[in-house]
Amino acid sequence: MATILRYLEFLSLGTWVGSIIFLSFVVAPGAFATLGSRDQAGAVVGMALGRLHLLGLIAGVLFLVARAARSLFTGRGLALLASPAALAVVVMLLLTLVSQYSVAPRMAHLRVQMVSVDRTPEDSPLRVEFNRLHRVSVRLEVAVLLAGLAALFFTVRNHR
Which of 21, 87, 108, 149 is 20 to 30 A distant from 138 in Cα terms? Predict the structure, then answer.
């Protein structure tokens, strides 16, 4: 049983981190390089990011449930939930929640108001706020990726 639970930990974390890497280094650059407009590319990346966030939230909860079950199964109480890997996953979940339910909706609202981000002047208050939120979004995703890489490292390192 412990092996299956460890497998679920690795699977959930690997899927989440791998998805972030794929979106960041394949999907987003590809969309902006091949689609007809930056607005279309932004819509595709925004949709994919929303799905990534949902996947991440499911993966993070699965990781913590598997970790808690393994901790109880091995007689450690809930000690594994205080491990660096579990704490990194909690940080990932919190940052993902902020991105998905605070930053992304505000960006979407601004996109609707501007009609076209590309055609909105850089000095427009709407565009200034959109660009600021975009920077926040990127920083959140980078932080989630770094926390995920740390969680993977700690999960691998603690393998017995």
Answer: 87
Collapsed DSSP state (helix, strand, coil) of residue 37: coil
pLDDT at 160: 54
Domain locations in the chain? 2-157
pLDDT averaged per 10 residues in sequence order, the chain, 160 residues:
92 98 97 92 95 98 94 78 93 98 96 93 96 97 98 85
Q: Which residues fall within 8 angstroms of residue 41, CB to CB, at 6 or more apart?
A: 28, 31, 32, 35
Tokens standing for 39? 């607005």
- Residues with Cβ < 8 Å from 131, sequence gap 6 or more? 122
Rounded CA separation 19/3 (Å): 24
Q: Confirm if 133 and 107 have CB atoms less than 8 A apart.
A: yes
Q: What is the pLDDT of residue 74?
A: 77
Residues 6+ apart with CB under 8 A from 158: 83, 85
Alpha helices in the chain, H assignment, sequence order: 2-22, 28-34, 38-73, 84-98, 104-114, 125-157
Under DSSP, the state recorded for 25 is: I
Q: What pLDDT was estimated at residue 73? A: 82
